Amino acid sequence: MPATTCPAIWRDAALAVVGLFLPVSCLGCGAPDRAVCPACRADLARRPRRVRLVAGVRLDAAFEYEGLVRTLLLELKLRGRVDVAGLLGRPTAELVRRALAASPPGTVVVRIPPSPRGRRRRGFDTVVLLLARGGVRGTRPLRRGRGDADGQKERTAVERVAVTVGTLSAARFAGRDVVVVDDVVTTGVTMAEAIRAVRAAGGRVARCVATASVDS
């Protein structure tokens, strides 16, 4: 089944219909009639990409996690605003394509899955949706085991590490090169856990990609 499922298509259509009857304003500046106005779209397009290291691996992020980008991601993840997914997903998918071009042939793309609670609340996998909007499909999910990464904001840095290590696992990656993708990277703890899981399965992480990253 394609990454963009029938329920997601119907959700997009429903939002478009609602927009005909309810007032919509730009999430960036409040201008009427657009979820994101042309000026704010242009501002997003001009923003520089971010590069940082996580567990010794290069991470490319399409945006810094601040301002309008943070607002768009929260609207998508907390309120189901899939109408903004393309603005974030297309540059994310472009970074994935660049990462694959810079990696050995046969490199596979794996994604960090949402927590079960987050998936149930949203009804979709944010990374799948973002990449699909940019034309990237067929990614493989890592597997979630014990623990739940929700509620990270209320934990200290040490607590975040303690509850995250061992929560992800990978299979069938022995000898394979991998690009790991997530939507948001803040402390880097979850991405580091993904890197650990791939390496534990015998794989090599060529690069990491995120839609947004906290500037480290």
Helix share, percent: 40-55%
Order of helices and strands: HHEEHHEHHEEHEEHE
Strand content: 15-25%
> How many helices in DSSP terms?
8
Lateral arrangement of strands in the main beta sheet: 1-2-8-7-3-4
The count of strands amounts to 8
Work out the oligomeric state of the chains in this entry: single chain
Rg (CA only): 17 Å
Compute the average pLDDT.
Answer: 87
Largest sheet data: 6 strands, mixed
Low-confidence stretches: 1-5
Shape: globular
End-to-end separation in angstroms reads: 37 Å
Q: How would you classify the helix and strand content by structural class?
A: alpha/beta
Overview of this protein structure:
By secondary structure, this protein is α/β, with parallel strands linked by helices. 42% of the residues lie in helices and 19% in strands. The chain has eight helices and eight strands; from the N terminus they run H-H-E-E-H-H-E-H-H-E-E-H-E-E-H-E. It has a six-stranded mixed sheet with strand order 1-2-8-7-3-4, sandwiched between helices. A two-stranded antiparallel sheet has the order 5-6. The longest helix is centred in the middle third of the chain and has 17 residues, at 85-101.
Features:
216 residues; two-stranded antiparallel ribbon; 8 helices; 19% strand; globular; disordered N terminus
